[in-house]
Amino acid sequence: MMGFHGFGGMGGWGLLGGVLVLLPAIALLAVLAGLAIWLWRRSDSKLVKAPLSQQSPQEILKMRYARGELSREEFQSAMQDLDQFGQ
What we know:
By secondary structure, the chain is mainly alpha-helical.
């Protein structure tokens, strides 16, 4: 019993001392879990889901050609491919 000052090794707080030691650890885990959930939900909301196009493939090709994204040869080749496969 020497060194425990008659408190049975609990430092005078009894079982409450053990609970008080665990509270900061539990609070830290709760904060970390909350942060992880918040970041996960935030990243899901930023995912961009491409809407289905209401334009035909030919219209899309014409727009890309008009913007200069395709050369004349690329445009004609792609249009022929679409015509050949019935698009």
